[in-house]
């Protein structure tokens, strides 16, 4: 044995350089940490075998390029290597994406370095255990084949019988010694549910001693086991003679519960069962699910409070405006109230959707709803109509909010300035998609707009439009008078 254990090599796949650096430094005491910034680079490193990697810490959201789950799938096709998903997302849909991938856990970035390090060590142990189980299963099959062959040869002659008896004895001792030394629980149950064999690890998992189990039935040493899902699975495997690998709960005689990974293999004597305890991992998974549920509850409460707060602010502005005699001051309050009510409408539309849709929003649907809301808020639906011609377009949540705010200012501007209080008219809104770009156009035929280029005027509304367009990374354009037409080009999802 060496004086010090050789450090395992861990590949950290993280697109945020600062997070990658901090995580590497914190893990360097226990592991050798290499880091790459993309899933493509991780795949290339594994395929080229540039570094001898023992485990991969995979962030799910890797920015541009493929995400962590896709990278993990490709890596596992190249090499059988333990992968732990590390993410700041606890959303149910994101967690579910990892369930179809062979991984060794899902750790929140906020869990802390000690939990991450413990998860890495557990993953190494699980991976090594799985490898040992596969190797031992292969050894068992080889040994079993040898025994079958020996039985046929024993019939041929008395001399061969004596020789084969010695061979079987030696092979059996070797096989038993192998099982006795395994950290996995190994047990053989007969058709009458009596213990024919169990190693020390298997007995310890059940909080018993080997001598308490051998020769006794499972019903005798574990009263009530016949009501557990574990027994139903064992009974099915015994009757159908089919292999089964499953994670199940086991209730001890003292009432405590543990979780195990069971590999159940029918054999000539009955059933051969390998077990490995995964209680810590299951408790961590349950804790994560509870945190997800708590987050969803808090989010619903936050959405409710924000909506109520916006309604209260709007009502307060309305009350204060009613006390003013100055018409200009009243308009300022009314404009503020309109913006708040519009914001509330946008907020309600966005957050009525599932959280998983926030990065893939139907922009055309939100624009259609916003136009309807604006007519109701401004109380002009009887004399002004908004005509929409919208291509199906996808955008993320942040850009959707900016676009809706810009559209709010442009439509409100047309309602206030294009037509006087007695005139009827129309406002035309179009959204045309061109590849990864889209053009949003607002047009009216009113005659009362101020002269000059709206994109350079200093009014609060159009100044806000210019600021929001710059934040969006878009480009504002206006057609030549007399028609009022403003277009905004911006990037959208493909």
From TrEMBL:
<dbReference type="Pfam" id="PF02518">
    <property type="entry name" value="HATPase_c"/>
</dbReference>
<dbReference type="InterPro" id="IPR001789">
    <property type="entry name" value="Sig_transdc_resp-reg_receiver"/>
</dbReference>
<keyword id="KW-0067">ATP-binding</keyword>
<dbReference type="Pfam" id="PF00072">
    <property type="entry name" value="Response_reg"/>
</dbReference>
<dbReference type="InterPro" id="IPR036890">
    <property type="entry name" value="HATPase_C_sf"/>
</dbReference>
<dbReference type="GO" id="GO:0005524">
    <property type="term" value="F:ATP binding"/>
</dbReference>
<dbReference type="GO" id="GO:0000160">
    <property type="term" value="P:phosphorelay signal transduction system"/>
</dbReference>
<protein>
    <recommendedName>
        <fullName>histidine kinase</fullName>
        <ecNumber>2.7.13.3</ecNumber>
    </recommendedName>
</protein>
<dbReference type="InterPro" id="IPR000014">
    <property type="entry name" value="PAS"/>
</dbReference>
<dbReference type="InterPro" id="IPR035965">
    <property type="entry name" value="PAS-like_dom_sf"/>
</dbReference>
<dbReference type="InterPro" id="IPR003594">
    <property type="entry name" value="HATPase_dom"/>
</dbReference>
<dbReference type="Pfam" id="PF08448">
    <property type="entry name" value="PAS_4"/>
</dbReference>
<keyword id="KW-0808">Transferase</keyword>
<dbReference type="GO" id="GO:0004673">
    <property type="term" value="F:protein histidine kinase activity"/>
</dbReference>
<keyword id="KW-0175">Coiled coil</keyword>
<keyword id="KW-0547">Nucleotide-binding</keyword>
<dbReference type="InterPro" id="IPR005467">
    <property type="entry name" value="His_kinase_dom"/>
</dbReference>
<feature type="domain" description="Response regulatory">
    <location>
        <begin position="9"/>
        <end position="124"/>
    </location>
</feature>
<feature type="domain" description="Histidine kinase">
    <location>
        <begin position="301"/>
        <end position="494"/>
    </location>
</feature>
<dbReference type="InterPro" id="IPR013656">
    <property type="entry name" value="PAS_4"/>
</dbReference>
<keyword id="KW-0597">Phosphoprotein</keyword>
<keyword id="KW-0418">Kinase</keyword>
<dbReference type="InterPro" id="IPR011495">
    <property type="entry name" value="Sig_transdc_His_kin_sub2_dim/P"/>
</dbReference>
<dbReference type="InterPro" id="IPR011006">
    <property type="entry name" value="CheY-like_superfamily"/>
</dbReference>
<dbReference type="Pfam" id="PF07568">
    <property type="entry name" value="HisKA_2"/>
</dbReference>
<feature type="modified residue" description="4-aspartylphosphate">
    <location>
        <position position="59"/>
    </location>
</feature>
<feature type="coiled-coil region">
    <location>
        <begin position="126"/>
        <end position="167"/>
    </location>
</feature>
């Amino acid at each position: 044995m060496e004086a010090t254990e050789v450090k395992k090599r861990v590949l950290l796949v993280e697109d945020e350089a600062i997070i990658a650096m901090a995580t590497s430094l914190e893990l360097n005491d226990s592991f050798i940490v290499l880091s790459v910034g993309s899933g493509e680079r991780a795949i290339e490193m594994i395929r080229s075998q540039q570094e001898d990697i023992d485990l991969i810490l995979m962030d799910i959201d890797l920015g541009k390029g493929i995400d962590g789950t896709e990278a993990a799938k490709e890596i596992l096709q190249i090499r059988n290597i333990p992968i732990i998903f590390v993410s700041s997302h606890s959303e149910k849909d994101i967690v579910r994406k990892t369930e179809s991938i062979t991984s060794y856990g899902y750790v929140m970035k906020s869990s802390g370095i000690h939990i991450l390090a413990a998860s890495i060590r557990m993953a190494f142990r699980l991976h090594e255990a799985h490898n040992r189980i596969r190797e031992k299963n292969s050894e068992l099959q080889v040994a079993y084949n040898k025994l079958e062959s020996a039985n046929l040869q024993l019939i041929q002659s008395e001399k061969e019988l004596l020789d084969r008896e010695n061979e079987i004895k030696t092979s059996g001792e070797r096989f038993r010694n192998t099982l006795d030394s395994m950290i996995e629980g190994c047990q053989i149950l007969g058709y009458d549910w009596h213990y024919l064999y169990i190693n020390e690890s298997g007995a310890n998992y059940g909080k018993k001693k080997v001598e308490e189990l051998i020769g006794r039935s499972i019903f005798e040493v574990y009263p009530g086991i016949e009501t557990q899902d574990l027994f139903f699975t064992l009974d099915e495997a015994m009757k159908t003679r089919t292999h089964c690998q499953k994670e199940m709960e086991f209730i001890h005689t003292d009432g405590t519960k543990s979780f195990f990974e069971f590999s159940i293999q029918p054999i000539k004597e009955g059933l051969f069962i390998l077990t490995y305890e995964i209680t810590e991992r299951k408790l961590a998974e349950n804790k994560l699910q509870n945190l997800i549920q708590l987050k969803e509850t808090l989010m619903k409460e936050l959405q409710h409070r924000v909506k109520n707060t916006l309604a209260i602010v709007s009502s307060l502005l309305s009350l204060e405006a009613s006390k003013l005699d100055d018409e200009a001051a009243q308009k300022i309050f009314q404009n503020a109230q309109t913006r708040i009510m519009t914001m509330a409408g946008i907020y309600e539309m966005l957050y009525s959707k599932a959280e998983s849709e926030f990065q893939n929003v139907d922009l055309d649907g939100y624009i259609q709803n916003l136009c309807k809301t604006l007519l109701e808020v401004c109380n002009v639906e009887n004399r002004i109509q908004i005509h929409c011609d919208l291509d199906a377009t996808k955008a993320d949540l942040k850009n959707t909010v900016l676009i809706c705010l810009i559209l709010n200012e442009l439509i409100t501007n047309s309602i206030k300035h294009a037509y006087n209080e007695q005139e009827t008219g129309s406002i035309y809104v179009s959204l045309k998609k061109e590849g990864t770009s889209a053009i949003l156009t607002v047009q009216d035929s009113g005659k009362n707009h101020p002269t000059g280029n709206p994109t350079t005027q200093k009014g609060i509304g159009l100044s806000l439009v210019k600021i929001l367009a710059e934040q969006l990374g878009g480009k504002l354009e206006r057609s030549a008078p007399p028609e009022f037409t403003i277009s905004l080009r911006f990037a959208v999802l493909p």
